[in-house]
Design a protein that fits this description.
Blueprint lengths: L2 H11 L16 H9 L2 E6 L3 H17 L4 E6 L7 H11 L15 H9 L3 H4 L4 H17 L1
Parallel strand pairs: 1-2
Helix pairs in contact: 1-2
Length: about 150
């Protein structure tokens, strides 16, 4: 079996789940490309910086060239309200008419950073926080787009 079809076969063997999420580095590495090939939907968190926007555009161009049947979405993540550049880039991105841009941003927060420490999603250890509400809104937006 070809290496690039192994992940697809593995994912098809998993049952009992409506969604399976695979976290991947934001690059066009062979691992990422295999994940892209095995996925129906790609959701790309994008930090509002020039470098992150370039990476996002590279990934979008990859999909246009090789796998146009995939649904590809992005959302703004780690938006720092104190940084003028973050706010300006966020505003530009959110005002683009493209349907693959999700409109719910996730703002940078100590609570978000604690996910690694807590080994749990924000909703588990800080369910009433603003960022938990933002993740809930983002999820509703994602579900609307993919269903």
């Amino acid at each position: 079996m070809e290496d690039d079809k192994l992940l697809t076969k593995l994912l098809k063997s998993i049952t009992g789940y409506k969604y399976i999420f695979i976290d991947s580095p934001p690059t066009l590495s062979p691992i990422s490309q295999n994940i892209f090939k095995a996925s129906d939907v790609i959701i790309i968190p994008t930090i509002p910086t020039i470098l992150s926007i370039r990476t996002y555009n590279q990934i979008v161009n990859y999909f246009k060239a090789y796998t146009s049947k995939r649904k590809v979405f992005t959302f703004l993540s780690m938006v720092d309200k104190r940084k003028k550049m973050h706010l300006e880039i966020s505003e530009k991105i959110l005002n683009l008419p493209k349907k693959q841009i999700l409109k719910t941003p996730i703002y940078n927060s100590v609570i978000v950073e604690k996910m690694g420490e807590e080994l749990a999603p924000v909703e588990v250890f800080a369910p009433f926080s603003e960022v938990s509400k933002a993740y809930q809104m983002l999820w509703k937006e994602i579900e609307t787009k993919i269903n």
